Amino acid sequence: MTDNDTLEQPNAEEMEGESFADMLEQSMKQKGSRLEPGQKVTARVLKVGSEWIFIDTGHKGEGVVDAKEFQNLDGNVTVKDGDSIAAYFLSSSHGEMRFTTRVGGGASGSAQLEEAYQAGVPVEGVVEKEIKGGYEIKLAGTTRAFCPFSQIALRRTDDPTAVIGTRLAFRITAYDEKGRNIVVSRRVLLEEEQRRLREEAAAGISEGVTVTGTVTSLQTFGAFVDIGGLEGLIPISEVGWSRVKEVSDVLSVGQQVKVVVKAIDREKERVSLSLKDTLANPWDLASQTYPEGSFHSGVVSRLAPFGAFVTLADGIDGLIHISKLGGGKRILHPREAVKEGETIEVKVESVDRTERRISLSLAGAARAAEEEEATLADFRRQADEAPKGMGTFGDLLRAKTQKSKK
């Protein structure tokens, strides 16, 4: 075998020059683990030590996280045995797997920035100041990074200076010139968390269940509601039992509401909600509240060519047909007899609870007709009871009329 045939073996300097990701990938392949650098896992805390937090990730081998990552300002560890935490895989050695919740801002974190970039592990940084196009972020040690305005939050903030001085988590999206040119994004982490919450919320709901949510925005066609990370829409027709003209008349941004899940489209991530279904149905007692023959006050809510709609209560509308609006005269449109917003007295002619319909008539005309019918009935009774020779029914009616004039 000649020197040219001899296989070249990597020396120590070459091995040191290998990237973290390359060495870790080889190690993982040898051990048959499926964990990849930067992979996020949910783990259970097994034991809290003075330097390390021991965790169970469900994979072969023991996981550890630096206890400093869970210390508050007073130096106390904020997790306990049995707690569930989210962590990112870093490396594995002798059956022990190293995890982190983020790359810290201390001097030791500086050497980890490139590894964090390759592995996709979040890094901590302090928003130092506003510069052209974004913010200057201070990472590990004296390392500086740039965060565009569009990447500091999910939506553009009204006050760009509000985040200055705050410590936030970022993901390195660009790492060039050996760390002299670093670009970071907080938005990608927020979007990932938002997706996770949406998936969890979608998996935990089903059609017909009642959930609590927060109104996030109002539109002409309805209201959007956040139900635990998943956003759903209450169409304007589902805001209430009564006819709603403006959603803002009933709901406001930030309001807590209970809603019923009407429909779920998991492919399009759309959820239809109903506020109306959480409210008492006014039609359940309509036949008792508005029996046939009863008189009520109502407001003319809408005019149509065939009649006038009258609101008796929230969610309860009745219709006066155009044939009953003219007082015996033929009219071409209901506006000739009533106008929208006018308060009138009506009589209930009939109630159809199944179809949710109430037929009405004007109370004045109805009462006049009732009085006329009562008068005629009284005269008929007197005519039947009167002795012969007292005259005809017409004579009695004329006599009664003359008497009333006196």
Order of helices and strands: HHEEEEEHEEEEEHEEEEEHEEEEEHH
Instruction: Based on the coordinates given, report the CATH architecture of the largest domain.
Output: Beta Barrel
Structural class category: alpha+beta
Total domain count? 5
User: Helical region count?
Assistant: 7
In CATH, what is the homologous superfamily of the largest domain?
Nucleic acid-binding proteins
The total beta strand count reads 20
Mean pLDDT: 79
* CATH topology (level 3) name of the largest domain: OB fold (Dihydrolipoamide Acetyltransferase, E2P)
Secondary-structure blueprint of this entry?
Blueprint: H1 12-17, H2 20-31, E1 40-48, E2 52-56, E3 62-66, E4 84-93, E5 96-100, H3 113-119, E6 123-131, E7 134-138, E8 144-148, E9 167-176, E10 181-185, H4 187-203, E11 210-219, E12 222-226, E13 231-235, E14 256-265, E15 270-274, H5 286-289, E16 295-304, E17 307-313, E18 316-321, E19 343-352, E20 357-362, H6 363-385, H7 393-405
Parallel strand pairs: 3-5, 18-20
Antiparallel strand pairs: 1-2, 1-4, 2-3, 4-5, 6-7, 6-9, 7-8, 9-10, 11-12, 11-14, 12-13, 14-15, 16-17, 16-19, 17-18, 19-20
Describe this entry's structure for a reader.
The structure is a single chain. By secondary structure, the protein is of the alpha+beta class. It folds into five domains: 19-100, OB fold (Dihydrolipoamide Acetyltransferase, E2P); 107-191, OB fold (Dihydrolipoamide Acetyltransferase, E2P); 205-277, Nucleic acid-binding proteins (OB fold (Dihydrolipoamide Acetyltransferase, E2P)); 282-366, Nucleic acid-binding proteins (OB fold (Dihydrolipoamide Acetyltransferase, E2P)), CATH 2.40.50; 378-405, no CATH class. 20% of the residues lie in helices and 35% in strands. The protein is built from seven helices and 20 strands. The chain has helices at residues 12-17, 20-31, 113-119, 187-203, 286-289, 363-385, 393-405; strands spanning 40-48, 52-56, 62-66, 84-93, 96-100, 123-131, 134-138, 144-148, 167-176, 181-185, 210-219, 222-226, 231-235, 256-265, 270-274, 295-304, 307-313, 316-321, 343-352, 357-362. β7 and β8 (144-148) form a beta hairpin. The longest helix is centred in the C-terminal third of the chain and has 23 residues, at 363-385.
